[in-house]
Amino acid sequence: MSGRSLIPEAAPGVAPPRELVIEPGGMSLNFWKDLWLYRDLLVFLTMRDIKVRYKQTVLGVGWAIIQPVVTTVIFTFVFGKLAGMTAGGVPYPLLVLAGLLPWQLFSAALSGSSVSLISNAHLISKVYFPRLIIPLSSLGVALVDFLVVLGLYFCTSIWFGRVPSWHWTLLPVFIILALTLAFGAGLWFTALTVKYRDFRYIVPFILQVGVFISPIGYSTGVVPTWRHLLDLNPITGVIDAFRWCLLSDGQPFDQHGILTSVAMSAILTLSGLWYFRKMERTFADVV
Amino acid sequence: MAADIIISAENVSKRYLIGHNVVDTTLRDRFSRAIRNAGSLFVPGSRASKATKEEFWALKDVSFEVPRGQVLGIVGRNGAGKSTLLKVLSRITEPTSGRVRMRGSVASLLEVGTGFHPELSGRENVYLNGAILGMSRSEITRKFDEIVAFSEVERFLDTPVKHYSSGMYVRLAFAIAAHLEPDILIVDEVLAVGDAQFQKKCLNKVSEVTRSGERTVLFVSHNSAALQSICTAGIWMKQGQLVFSGPINECLAAYLRTGSRAADFPAPAEPKPYIVSVRVDPRALAEGRIMVEVAFSSPFPLSPPVVGITISSRFGQPICGSNGRMAGDSWKPAAASSGVVTASIDHVPLHSDTYRLSVYLGDSGMDYDQKLDVVDFDYVSPRFYPQMPPLQLIGPADFDWSWSLKAD
Questions:
Q1: For residue A79, which of A216, A208, A251, A207 has the smallest C-alpha distance?
Q2: Same-domain status, B297 and B253
Q3: Are residues B146 and B293 located together in one domain of the fold?
Q4: What is the residue range of B191's domain?
Q5: Are A82 and A156 in contact, with CB atoms under 8 Å apart?
Q6: How far is A182 from chain B (nearest CA, A)?
Q7: A27 in contact with B at a CB cutoff of 8 Å?
Q8: What is the CATH classification number for the domain harbouring B83?
Q9: Which site among A44, A118, A195, A283 would you substitute to test the B interface, given the most B Cβ atoms closer than 10 Å to its Cβ?
Q10: How does pLDDT run across B237-255, given as a tens digit for each residue?
């Protein structure tokens, strides 16, 4: 039933027009090509989300800073002072902030991409474009918020008298890793949310639990016995890698956690893409 | 597919499943169904929940071909599958079976201003909406000044569109759409909004590009006049199936000839005079006349039976009406307890549009029954006015005007 071979060649001298075949299951035929054709839309939707986020709030960028500052103060107090955990010679607030950075990037990207399809339902039911653009464009907001806090970290680090080392140059790699991890999971959740609205409540719950089972408020060095259990959480590796980049505290780079992260992000993204593409054709009918 | 055929649809069908036992919208439904079905393994014959699923074919074996440069009008009642067909052709939803082949770029306009964000400025929305409609950034930049000039909202370009009046909003949205340059343009009933003058500007723009013969347009509208003036061919959809395909005039005539413009009513619980049925004669309509037949029944003779009829615009605004009492001495029928009253207008002073009827029943002194807005019908005027302003501007009445000029 491919049908493509049945189409005669265009007449000589006439530029062959773009041929489009619409048939059951045909939506996936031009998947990657269409994604490329609609790349400008990806940029505009990303810009829309970013602009709207900062236009609608009175404090604007302030919100991106207040949240991590408050969390850092609380975690420093709870883990550093009350629990008396050590930071291996690093100022405790820096340790927390360096852990909070990847966590917030991940959690913002995951929650944003998870609700992306249903919050753009009006677009899906009225116009065609590659649906993958929607979860992709939701990552932009998370990244901008992240960059703001990264600037905050940089200032705080200088204030504590710590100059960044060459480890910083590897940071983009781990930013991409955190985003991929969130995107892979987000693909699953957003496609599932179209059909089962329950997932709107499941994702915030997972993230709430995640704050406690991820080493945000403490260093993985203080819990050697639980290390292997922690490594099962794919975020652990990313957080450790961020700390390695940002703190430059002479700790060796730990590969175990990062292997879990890389493997999990690959599995989630590939399977997420598969599931998303499988469900894509029904989005407009169900959403 | 012949060289000049640009759209070819073969046996396109689209099925929707209706019924809450089939489409689980929450996980709880899903789980509870799974548990019920698991239970049914032990209780033979209890696996009945699946049987409640109901199939609904929004499209059934629709086939047609559109040559390059054709402006194809799609007509049919609400729910006949027109919008589903456009959604399939726009790739918003997939067909359940069948295949459509299209040559060239496709843009669809199923709504005005899809994706406009109220918080963003007019300028930002031009880019966003343009990209959503399939334009590239460079294309939008190239046409930007033209779009803005067309929209007539230059002064408010940097104002968030939430502060726009609805007219400005629609003008900006249309201006973007009017500057799309796809090979195939799919348009759903969107020209029905906006102020009249701007609509005319858009229609002109559409006919301008279609006259060049390069653009193929699919156009859904309930406005017979608009269809007649811009379309060259038409297809008629009925209950998901294509029932007619041919020149637009024949298509509209065939569509308007159907006897669907009739309504029947049950007898009331307590015996009293009532309207049994209302019917607009399709053959008279096709000849440009309006003929309404009202059947009535009464437990006692009505002396005489009096029927009142009001014609309203599709927006419900009454245009004209009359009844047997107003006929005075010219109509003095005998008393009757059942029968059919026929009223007709031979020279109909109306433009082509959709109209509604309300019907009343009474006798010389009293009204007994009324049926408001019971029948819709499309009236196609035999008169043709090139470059007629839209009806929102001039109203539905079409009188015989006399003109004179006293030049100095």
A1: A216
A2: no
A3: no
A4: 65-257
A5: no
A6: 23
A7: yes
A8: 3.40.50.300
A9: A44
A10: 988 999 999 998 888 888 8
Listed residue (A115, A144, A46, A53) closest to B131, CA to CA: A46
- B85 and chain A: CB distance < 8 Å anywhere? no
Residue B233: predicted pLDDT: 92
Structural domain total, chain B: 3
B44, pLDDT greater than 70: no
B121 within a domain of the structure (yes/no): yes
Statement to judge: residues B248 and B280 lie in one domain: no
Structure tokens that stand for A184 in this block: 């892979």
- Same domain (yes/no): B286, B240: no
Q: Could you tell me if A69 lies within 8 Å of chain B, comparing CB atoms? A: no
pLDDT at B102 over 70: yes
In a domain, B403, yes or no: no
Q: Same domain for B84 and B189?
A: yes
Pairing of strands B106-109, B184-188: parallel
What is the model's pLDDT at position B171? 85
Residue ending a domain, choose from B219, B234, B257: B257
Does the beta carbon of B96 lie under 8 angstroms from any beta carbon of chain A?
Answer: yes
Helices vs. strands in chain A: H and E counts, helices first = 13, 1
Provide the pLDDT for residue B55: 81
Residues B286, B357, single domain; the answer is yes
CATH label of the domain that carries residue B298: 2.70.50.60
Are residues B326 and B380 part of one domain?
Answer: yes
Structure confidence at residue B140 (pLDDT): 94
- pLDDT tens per residue, range A14-63: 445 568 888 887 666 678 888 888 999 999 999 999 888 887 666 777 87
Q: What angle, 0 to 180 degrees and rounded to 10, lies between the N-to-C axes of helices A61-75 and A92-119?
A: 130
At a CB cut-off of 8 Å and minimum separation 6, what does B312 contact? B318, B319, B355, B356, B357, B358, B373
> In whole numbers, what is the pLDDT of chain B averaged over residues?
82
Residues B309 and B377 in one domain: yes
Question: Which two structure tokens, joined as six digits, stand for A102?
Answer: 């990847």
Question: Pick from B238, B257, B276: which residue ends a domain?
Answer: B257
Give the per-residue pLDDT at B51: 46
B273 vs A54, residue with greater confidence = B273
**Is B72:B219 a contact under the CB 8 Å cutoff?**
yes
Start-to-end CA span in chain A (Å): 29
Beta strand B306-313 with B336-345 is: unpaired
| 8 A C-beta contact, residue A7 and residue B101 | yes
Is residue A286 less than 8 Å (CB to CB) from chain B? yes
Q: Counting beta carbons within 10 angstroms of the beta carbon of residue A229, is it exposed (0 to 12), middle (13 to 18) or buried (19 or more)?
A: exposed
Q: Does B23 touch chain A (CB under 8 A)?
A: yes
Distance from CA of B358 to the nearest CA of A (A): 35
Are B108 and A128 a contacting pair at CB < 8 A?
yes
In a domain, B49, yes or no: yes
- Beta pairing partners, B345: B290
Q: Examine residue B387 and state whether it is found in any structural domain, yes or no.
A: yes
d(CA A148, CA B43) in angstroms, rounded, equals 61
Is pTM beyond 0.80 here?
Answer: no
